[in-house]
Amino acid sequence: MTSSETSTQRIPPFVSLGSARAVAAPSVATAPSQLSSVAAKTSGVKVSRETSNVLDTIDDSSPIARELAHENRRREKLLGRTLPKPEKTRIFTVSNQKGGVGKTTTTVNIAAALAAAGLNVLVIDIDPQGNASTALGIEHHADVDSIYDVLINDVPLEDVVAPCPDINNLICAPATIHLAGAEIELVSLVAREQRLRRAIDVYAKAREKKGESRLDYIFIDCPPSLGLLTVNAFCAAGEVLIPIQCEYYALEGLSQLLKNIEMIQKHLNADLVVSTILLTMYDGRTNLAAQVAAEVRQHFPDQVLSAVVPRSVRISEAPSYQQTVMTYDPSSSGALSYLEAAAEIAER
């Protein structure tokens, strides 16, 4: 066996494509010049018909070539698609009491994808960590008016929202560290569970009075808990979007979350529905991820999106540049997955 054959066999069976820049492996059996051509053509969001033709000529025995061809076909389905405007503002609470499942990442990237399609989107960050505000490039230090002032001090929401610098039609109500004490302060306030809902209603009327176009989507990013902040989000929303990490612990926490949502439906917001479940951090190399995905789809066949978000370095890197993955690396597999998820949500 030659040394070149040995190096080819050592290539792992699956190569994650965080972006087209990952296509530089000289040991792949496919001609390097062909891969360079494909990488150059897939460096943007839009993929031309010529790229598809080049991909068709690449040997399917190469894992990288197969992955590139598959992603190209997925992109072609999205090209030229216009997302419909909802009949009225759709308000989503993005919630899961388990931390680290991708709530904030899902919130900002789906919001960015919808806004990039020309829809008017508002992100409300009610997580004291303020990660959604960071990802959207919105200032959220202690001296900035935030959603805390809206909930506790009755400051109008229109005085708090700020535009995202990278994406048109996307605005954000930031969170500051003051929210950490809001759970305690809300206890003694009148109509404590409805304060966010009323603030959103007042803001919608203010936009209408100014002649501004109505919001198409509102996404509320919740903390990893089921306290009063999350209850406010449930009371303000009509739909719940639940990101589920493809691991066993995520399934364990889902039943408790659904019980709490049932309580909200019974006592505070009868119109609330769990409309969307998104599988995140999916690793196709493991049987566990496939088993978890299959089990969730079996129990929630109508709610689970077809789009699945893979583990992606690009998605993790984007917030460090105060961006979503949609602007940080729009050609990455993570950005493509969130584009598909956003399109699926809009067309439901």
Strand order of the largest sheet: 3-4-2-5-1-6-7-8
Number of strands: 8
β-sheet strand percentage: 5-15%
Sequence stretches where pLDDT stays below 50 over 5 or more residues: 1-55
**What's the gyration radius in Å?**
22 Å
**SSE-based structural type:** alpha/beta
Please give the largest β-sheet.
8 strands, mixed
Query: What is the residue-mean pLDDT, rounded to a whole number?
Result: 82
Spatial separation of the terminal alpha carbons = 55 Å
Task: Please work out how many helical segments DSSP would assign.
Answer: 15
Structural shape = globular
Q: Helix and strand succession?
A: HHHHEHEHHEEHHEHEHEHEHHH
Helix content: 40-55%
3D architecture notes:
The chain is of the alpha/beta class and 348 residues long. The chain is built from 15 helices and 8 strands. The chain has helices spanning 3-9, 32-41, 49-56, 63-78, 103-116, 131-135, 147-153, 182-186, 195-210, 228-236, 248-267, 287-299, 313-317, 325-328, 333-346; strands at residues 90-94, 121-125, 162-163, 170-173, 217-221, 239-245, 273-282, 304-310. The protein has an 8-stranded mixed β-sheet with strand order 3-4-2-5-1-6-7-8, sandwiched between helices. β3 and β4 form a beta hairpin. α2 (32-41) packs antiparallel against α3 (49-56), α3 runs antiparallel to α4 (63-78) and α4 packs parallel to α15 (333-346). The model is unreliable at 1-55 (pLDDT under 50).
